[in-house]
Request: fold
Amino acid sequence: TLQPDGSPKSEPVWAAREGDRVLVTSDANSLKGKNLARDPRVALSIVDFANPYEQLLIRGRVVEVRPDEDLAFLDHLSRRYTGQPFARRKWRARAVYVIEPSVARYYKSPLVHEPTV
Reply:
């Protein structure tokens, strides 16, 4: 997201697809939520867990905000990423942000990911 002064704010998020759109969630009252209410432009950097040199870069804008008061979407993402519903149950204004990409670029580098111990 973009801060009020135009500087970027970056943080990890869980994401899902709905057709060609990307869905993320946050509390609407968080800094991320406030940034998106003011300026819907976003950028996402998605890397493969097993190979961080395989990546998808997306730029776009939030085109819809959906309430997630029952945390159904948050639980859906949490189950995908952790295998369990999300533990924290109290949020002031949980929301789902629907992102329409304007640029999407996939790249797999020839570098080999071989972590050292």
The chain has a mean pLDDT of 94.
